[in-house]
């Protein structure tokens, strides 16, 4: 009798364990908050401000998803993750989604069993070096000591770059961007390498940003985007289309200023109407209500606004849109239609 | 007539399993065993279910895949084309290196501090008390980070050594460079190096002479060091034989023959011949490009980890040594003094040998602690097994379970080996009781 009870309990526990991650949307709504994995601090992308409130470009995506799903952009638990802990955190269900300038690669998408929902920043790996060293090309870095965040694609690209150019280097593995900054400024490494956007963001926080140069070589493609676990397609759809909504909103001219007005009543543009839920019932297809997208856009504005407010040319980080402009402006951003 | 009544023959009833003391303990044990087995079964089942839910399988094939990342401190050949298995071995060797270095220095520090803490000199004993209490009462991680930060922030950069009037200069007759990237010390190079490296070096020297370029510094290979170690080992063995024979002579005749010059010659001469035959030269580090090159590079991460582990564990060992010495009866030292022995003889010949029996068992667990604490290498980016197999490899392949199990297995085997070796030593020093 006793054994039967235990066996029964075991089976139930096993089943519960087996299905624990299958309904992320349900989990998030039951919890009333979204667990979003971000960096441990990269100004412009995700970092707590002076009041301890997380802000940044990646944080904007988390908040947009929280607004779309829960109707509250502040219902987000930001979980700081390092290059090494991020995938375990996502795979184990500690976080519901990861928005941590993570590169979309074949093996991560397939072997690590994640679902990249899109690209929110097209990046590439670069090198930063003090200008007094007089180095003008990454190919002159023979014998240099290079600070590198472990557990990243940059680590692999770096090994490939130095090997193919037949030059040597000394890697100094570090855990977080803050640690890298400290080591680099102390001169414990000659070069710091990571995604060019990250280098720009890091340099912006230096006392004398002008004393450091980014080398011209961009040695890799780094499409950065938010990701979720494999196997929960409904949740993946929600995050994917929230990101697409932000991108489409910029293309269609929907901004945080006019989204309230446009969502109030159906207008002339049918795509805007479908996006904002004044026409059709797209929201119900992903298990949300009609104005999910309007809420997501209302938080920090559309993709372009998020970009300009956090990392754009008017911020200390000063990144140009470049590849991250809309396809209509010669960039790579191209959201599938809302139909 | 016998009135004895036979005790009633009771048949076995189920309730006896609980109410009869003869069976109760067995019942409890059986139930406990079943519960434990079920617990393990549940854990296993949970793991399998969750792996299935994540769509992952359980294989070790990833160890044969190309690692793709570089490791700065390598005791064996390794490059980014090598396999994950080799990366794991490089990490294991790095763990072993810092563990062995740490155990040696911690023991030396601990024995000195423990003995000195018992000194009658007030200043010395209190200084040691400050060391012991200071180090063992502050978390190890803080010491590691502190030493690392001091090395990184306050030492000169390699480029400060450059120029006509450099900001920094090399120590000890231009042989040691202390930089914020670590300490560069001279190494031994062998002109007639054995194995492949010797032939390569010869070819490189010929080419350099032909071109008129700078002659490359001589290499050193494992084979050279093995030969040297073999020669030194044989010499020491021969010297011990001489000592044994002197003992025998002393036993027989009462006169001890003078042997120190024979023993010295036996150790020094063959080693010197071997060094000469291999063409040993001292290769000094020098500044080239961004960094110092040649010599041995003791990285900041190694220094911070090694010193912090040694100082921290040394404080514990000091207390163990002090306890061991105090456990030796005071009569022993009084008897030694009565025989006219000097204090340092008394300590070395009378007290410490007896104290060892008390010291060694707790010392084993300190060695195990030090070895496992070396995984705090994560704080300073020392590439130990946790950083390679348990860090980058897991991260690149997504094989958390397999990687963690392998790493646990490594630490388990290493700890068992250390305690096994120390137990053998303990058996050889413990009091023989009859």
- Residue runs with pLDDT of under 50 for 5 or more positions of chain A: 1-21
Helix share, percent of chain B: 55-70%
- Rg of chain B is 30 Å
The helix-strand sequence of chain A is HHEEEHEHEHEEEEHEHEHEEHHHHHH
Largest interface: A-B, 55 and 46 residues
Report on this model:
The complex is a heterodimer of chains A (339) and B (434). With 339 residues, chain A is α/β, with parallel strands linked by helices. Chain A folds into two domains: 24-122 and 223-329, 3-Layer(aba) Sandwich (D-Maltodextrin-Binding Protein, domain 2), CATH 3.40.190.10; 125-220, 3-Layer(aba) Sandwich (D-Maltodextrin-Binding Protein, domain 2). Helices cover 40% and strands 18% of the residues of chain A. Chain A contains 14 helices and 13 strands. Chain A has helices at 2-19, 24-31, 57-70, 86-91, 106-110, 153-164, 177-185, 196-204, 233-252, 259-264, 270-276, 282-285, 292-300, 303-310, and strands at residues 34-38, 47-48, 54-55, 76-80, 97-103, 114-116, 121-123, 125-130, 144-149, 169-174, 191-195, 212-214, 222-229. In chain A, strands 1, 4, 5, 6, 7 and 13 form a six-stranded mixed sheet that branches. A five-stranded mixed sheet of chain A has the order 10-9-11-8-12, sandwiched between helices. In chain A, strand 2 and strand 3 form a beta hairpin. In chain A, helix 3 (57-70) crosses helix 9 and helix 9 (233-252) crosses helix 13. Mean pLDDT of chain A is 89; it is low at 1-21. Chain B is mainly α and 434 residues long. Among the domains of chain B are: 84-159 and 300-429, Orthogonal Bundle (MetI-like fold), CATH 1.10.3720; 187-283, no CATH class. In chain B, 65% of the residues lie in helices and 6% in strands. Chain B has helices at 16-19, 21-53, 84-117, 122-136, 140-154, 171-174, 195-211, 222-253, 260-278, 300-327, 330-338, 343-373, 385-397, 400-429; strands at 177-179, 182-185, 187-190, 280-283, 286-288, 291-293, 296-299. In chain B, the strands form three sheets. A three-stranded antiparallel sheet of chain B has the order 1-2-7. In chain B, strand 1 and strand 2 form a beta hairpin. Chain B is globular. The relative contact order of chain B is 0.13. The model of chain B has no long low-confidence stretch (mean pLDDT 88). Classes of the chains: A alpha/beta (339), B mainly alpha (434). The interface between A and B is large, with 55 and 46 residues.
């Amino acid at each position: 009798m006793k054994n039967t009870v235990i066996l029964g309990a075991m089976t139930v526990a096993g089943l519960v364990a087996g299905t624990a991650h299958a309904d992320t949307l349900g989990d998030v709504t039951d919890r009333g908050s979204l667990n979003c994995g971000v960096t441990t601090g990269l100004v412009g992308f995700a970092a707590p401000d002076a009041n301890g409130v997380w802000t940044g470009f990646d944080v904007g995506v988390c908040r947009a998803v929280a607004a779309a799903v829960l109707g509250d952009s502040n219902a987000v638990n930001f979980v700081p993750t390092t290059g090494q802990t991020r995938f375990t955190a996502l795979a184990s269900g500690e976080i519901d989604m990861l928005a941590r300038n993570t590169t979309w690669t074949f093996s991560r998408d397939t072997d690590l069993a994640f679902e990249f929902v899109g690209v929110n920043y097209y990046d590439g790996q670069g090198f930063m070096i003090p200008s007094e060293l007089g180095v003008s090309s990454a190919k002159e870095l023979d014998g240099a000591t290079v600070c590198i965040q472990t557990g990243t694609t940059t680590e692999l690209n770096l090994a490939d770059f130095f090997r193919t150019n037949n030059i040597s280097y000394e890697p100094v593995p570090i855990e977080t961007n803050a640690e890298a900054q400290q080591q680099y400024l102390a001169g414990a490494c000659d070069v710091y390498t990571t995604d060019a956007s990250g280098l720009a963001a890091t340099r912006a926080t230096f006392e004398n940003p002008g004393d450091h140069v980014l080398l011209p070589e961009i040695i890799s493609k780094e499409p950065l985007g938010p990701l979720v676990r494999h196997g929960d397609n409904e949740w993946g759809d929600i995050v994917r289309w929230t990101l697409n909504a932000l991108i489409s909103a910029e293309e269609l001219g929907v901004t945080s200023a006019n989204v309230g007005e446009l969502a109030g009543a159906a207008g002339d543009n049918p795509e805007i109407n479908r996006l904002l839920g004044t026409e059709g019932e797209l929201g119900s297809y992903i298990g949300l209500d009609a104005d999910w997208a309007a809420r997501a856009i209302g938080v920090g504005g559309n993709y372009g606004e998020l970009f300009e407010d956090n990392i754009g040319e008017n911020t200390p980080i000063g990144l140009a849109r470049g590849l991250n402009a809309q396809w209509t402006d010669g960039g790579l951003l191209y959201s599938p239609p809302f139909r | 007539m016998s009135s004895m009544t036979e005790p009633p023959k009771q048949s076995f009833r189920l309730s006896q399993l609980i109410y009869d003391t003869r069976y109760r303990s067995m019942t409890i044990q059986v139930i406990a065993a079943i519960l434990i087995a079920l617990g393990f079964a549940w854990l296993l089942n949970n793991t399998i279910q969750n792996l299935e839910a994540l769509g992952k399988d359980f294989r070790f094939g990833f160890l044969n895949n190309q690692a793709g990342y570089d490791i700065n401190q390598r005791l064996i050949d390794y490059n980014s084309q090598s396999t994950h298995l080799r990366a794991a071995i490089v990490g294991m060797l790095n763990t072993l290196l810092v563990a062995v270095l740490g155990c040696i220095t911690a023991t030396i520090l601990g024995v000195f501090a423990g003995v000195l803490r018992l000194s009658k000199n007030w200043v010395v004993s209190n200084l040691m008390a400050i060391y012991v209490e200071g180090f063992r009462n502050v978390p190890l991680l803080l010491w590691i980070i502190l030493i690392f930060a001091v090395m990184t922030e306050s030492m000169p950069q390699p480029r400060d050594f450059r120029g006509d009037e450099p900001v920094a200069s090399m120590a000890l007759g231009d042989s040691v460079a202390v930089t914020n990237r670590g300490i560069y010390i001279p190494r031994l190079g062998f002109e007639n190096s054995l194995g492949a490296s010797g032939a390569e070096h010869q070819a490189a020297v010929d080419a350099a002479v032909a071109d008129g370029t700078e002659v490359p510094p001589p290499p050193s290979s494992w084979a050279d060091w093995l030969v040297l170690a073999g020669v030194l080992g044989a010499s020491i063995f021969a010297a011990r034989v001489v000592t044994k024979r002197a003992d025998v002579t002393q036993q027989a005749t009462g006169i001890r023959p003078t042997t120190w010059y024979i023993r010295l010659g036996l150790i020094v001469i063959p080693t010197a011949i071997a060094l000469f035959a291999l063409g040993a030269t001292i290769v000094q580090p020098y500044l080239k490009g961004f960094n110092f090159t040649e010599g041995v590079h003791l990285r900041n991460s190694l220094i911070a980890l090694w010193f912090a582990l040694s100082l921290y564990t040394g404080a514990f060992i000091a207390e163990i040594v002090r306890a061991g010495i105090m456990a030796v009866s005071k009569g022993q030292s009084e008897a030694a003094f009565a025989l006219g022995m000097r204090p340092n003889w008394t300590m070395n010949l009378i007290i410490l040998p007896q104290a060892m029996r008390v010291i060694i068992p707790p010392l084993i667990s300190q060695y195990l602690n030090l070895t496992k604490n070396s995984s705090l290498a994560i704080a300073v980016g020392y590439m130990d097994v946790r950083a390679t197999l348990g860090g980058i490899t897991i991260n690149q392949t997504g094989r958390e379970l397999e990687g963690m199990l392998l790493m646990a297995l490594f630490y388990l085997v290493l700890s068992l080996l250390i305690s096994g070796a120390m137990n053998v030593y303990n058996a050889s020093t413990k009091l023989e009781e009859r």
